[in-house]
């Protein structure tokens, strides 16, 4: 039996307006964050390369990748349930797999479980244009009661 594919609850444009309004400190033109695609159950986001993200040794810092993974999860969740500003991260686990290139990072979120109160997902982060992931993330979000 084939299951019907659900449309996203929010489009890229709706998410951009929401994030600009609700989180201007994090989502603004200078942040380098952008949303490339969304679907019910996930999304793909980008962090534009910025020299201040590079740590000694010529690699992009772990905090930059963690923030990107958290952003990807939030976008994937909101794309699936609509605008819920008080959905919050309750857990984030990251495995750094290889040194990222000094270029844009692309993160793709896939929700593994989307319940009424919890969402669990995974995020793969790649250096733009390369197929091997530089980090793998699992994360859980708490969704407030309506």
Which bin fits the share of residues in helices? 10-25%
Please tell me how large the radius of gyration is: 15 Å
Low-confidence stretches: none
Largest sheet, if any? 6 strands, antiparallel
Task: Compute the number of helices.
Answer: 2
How far the N terminus sits from the C terminus, by CA atoms, comes to 32 Å
> What do we call the CATH topology?
Thiol Ester Dehydrase, Chain A
Total domains: 1
Number of strands: 8
Mean pLDDT: 95
Q: Helices and strands: which structural class?
A: alpha+beta
CATH architectural group: Roll
The CATH homologous superfamily corresponds to: Hotdog Thioesterase
Q: Which CATH C-level class is it?
A: Alpha Beta
What sequence of helices (H) and strands (E) makes up the elements? Answer: HEEEEHEEEE
Strand arrangement in the largest pleated sheet? 1-2-6-7-8-5
Identify the overall geometry: globular
Could you describe the 3D structure shown?
- The chain has 146 residues and is an alpha+beta fold.
- It is 21% helix and 38% strand.
- The chain has one domain: Hotdog Thioesterase (Thiol Ester Dehydrase, Chain A), CATH 3.10.129.
- It has helices at residues 12-22, 62-81, and strands at residues 33-39, 42-47, 54-55, 59-60, 88-96, 105-114, 118-127, 133-142.
- A hairpin with a 5-residue loop joins strand 7 (118-127) and strand 8.
